[in-house]
Hints:
Mean pLDDT: 89
Structural class: alpha/beta
Strand order of the largest sheet: 1-2-3-6-5-4
Largest sheet: 6 strands, mixed
Order of helices and strands: HEHHEHEHEEEEEEHHHH
Amino acid sequence: MPRCWPKAQSLKDAGLQRVTVSLDGLDDATFRSMNDVDFPVAEVLKGIEAAQKVGLAPIKVNMVVKRGTNDAEIIPMARHFRNSGVVLRFIEYMDVGATNGWRMDEVLPSAQVIERLNAEFPLTPINPNYLGETAERWRYADGAGEIGVISSVTQAFCSDCNRARLSTEGKLFLCLFASQGHDLRALLRNEQYTDEQIAAAVGHIWQGRTDRYSELRAELPADVGSAGSLKRVEMSYIGG
């Protein structure tokens, strides 16, 4: 039994129900170059297999698509995960933070991803699971499963966003592209506050949300994603 299976079972026993995994291609050199930590594809695939073995569901695999770097992996990834029960999602390369040297010409629009996939595996659109879902969902016409695309650059989705992120040190970020977070650590550690009071405080913060980055991006300088430009939180700090 692979070493990751007992770990996956322990997570399932602790209450974990579903999991999302990052995998930017099946080619090992390509994936290692994109994940910044030299992590091999084989280990990710073992983890996905382990999650399936213990019954975690749904399992989603996120592939960030960077034009000229891993866009040749779109079809191989789709072919690999068809008929597996895994939901593959293709995400436009984003200008998150200021350390990835982002350039607009490296963004492959989701519409072109769908064109490539549809030419190889005919697709039909399906409705979102809920209001504010960031992924646009598509089903293989032959019943081999579904894929999703996240147009995080070419479309604005701030108006119906319903996601906030809590960092490991207790800061609440209301946007993936936020420049600062709200410190909740003292509130969470103070035993005088009830769950209801904490929920009310978080609700008050969310109701005052003014983040509109995906709508304002087009008005910003062309090098907005490069180092030294507008400071934004790194995705590695708050998660996707």
